[in-house]
Amino acid sequence: MITSLIVLFFIGYLAIALEHPLKVDKTATALMLGMLLWIIYALGAEYIVPLIDGESLKAYVDSHPSLANASLHKQALGYVTDVRLVETLGDVTQTLFFLIGAMTIVELVDIHGGFTVITNRIKTRNKRRLLWVICAVTFIFSAVLDNMTTTIVMVLLLRKLIEDQHERWLYAGMIVIAANTGGAWSPIGDVTTIMLWVKGNVTALALIERVLLPSVVAMVVPLLIVSRSLKGDIPPFEHELPDQTHGMSMGERTLIFFLGVGGLLFVPIFKSITHLPPFVGMLFVLGVLWLFTEIFYNGKRIERRKQHRLPQVISRIDMPSILFFLGILLAVGVLEASGVLAATASWLDNEVHNVYIINVLLGIMSSIFDNVPLVAGVMGMYPIEDATAVGYAANFVQDGIFWEFLSYCAGVGGSLLIIGSAAGVIAMGLEKINFGWYLKHFSLAALVGYLAGAGVYMLEILLM
Question: Residue 306: how many CA atoms within 13 Å on its side-chain side?
Fold first, then answer.
């Protein structure tokens, strides 16, 4: 039964990785995978649960007298539905509610033209200087927003500045790297860092303190390599993008921008003050912005069809991505409940026994496979150790070396191939960048930057 879980998971994982050649949306695969694994787990509960959770099953039956004389299958099935499924859903929904809140806030800022507050200030025509400015803005944006939205905003900006498509590809390739490196050091910058932060594997301050410099190095090294091929100035070009702001003044756009971005930045502060789960702070901020926009539109004479109230904004969020995360996290929950991840962790501990090598390899794997299930699986493999842990186990305490380095490697490693990250796939779709072209022009530079940043992190740990 456990073998069938492992085989099915790898088939599903492979289908997700091969989404584009198979032409099957990864969300459909993830949902099917998650549900099938829970069905198999439930059908085999009488064999799996006593083996993995014998003591917990006994405690569950003792607390439910009506199950005392029931069959082992009924007892184990009750444990799966009442304990394991509920616990897994509790963990998963925290991440999903956080993402829904964050994505809605980002869409709210975007639909009101808030990001033009920054992008309209980019005036330079020098090719090298423009590349550095765009990468710096992308790096900062990605730390606060998700890397998909950041990539979309910056690629649309490129279309306004650069007419030649192949020249835009050079800038778009660096945007992918900058977006991924920018998200790796922020607790709200990438889905994987959100997962690590929400689960308590890392804290916001420690993550920023130790992963920021390696992430900067991972961006600057490829930037130095790529910028050498750019010379001269960009020829004058003005390409008008559709105006979706419906007459919003610059002052109103600026207000929406600072309220939205300020709200996102407030979430880690909220958690450190209240010690409540991050999704509570995110939904609180969303509620405040919802109230603000209601009052804002009630006080302005704008046609109803031109208003961007929250119900309209929510309809714009990327629901397939939310369902993808739901499916894959539920699938990983089955592997954790059935003991597969614990056994895998034990094998890695015995055969590799080096957190740096493990994470560097995971980062390279994230350029081929989706880093969300990769990180979710790794989180399920290793428990967060007690602060008093010593020796090898000390790497897995909260803010331990393993978790911080995992955040860096999983985020930055996705830049090695254009299909290795959401930012890369978005750029590939918007600009029709060829897989082979990116491999030729950016993969080596991204790899050098990735290894350089990893070396900086190791040096930080050595010096500390």
Answer: 10
Residue-wise pLDDT tens for the chain (464 aa)? 788 998 998 898 788 777 778 888 888 998 999 999 999 999 999 999 998 888 999 999 999 888 888 899 899 999 999 999 998 898 888 878 887 888 888 888 888 888 777 777 777 778 889 999 999 999 998 888 777 778 878 887 787 778 777 888 999 999 999 999 998 998 888 888 888 998 889 998 999 999 999 999 999 999 999 998 888 887 765 544 445 555 577 888 889 888 988 888 888 788 878 888 888 988 999 999 999 988 888 877 666 656 678 888 888 887 887 888 788 888 888 888 888 877 776 777 778 888 999 999 888 888 876 677 778 878 888 889 888 888 888 899 999 999 999 999 989 998 998 877 778 877 876 787 877 888 889 999 999 999 999 999 999 999 87
> Taking the model in full, what pTM does it have?
0.72
Q: Which residues contact 231 (CB under 8 A, 6 or more apart)?
A: 127, 128
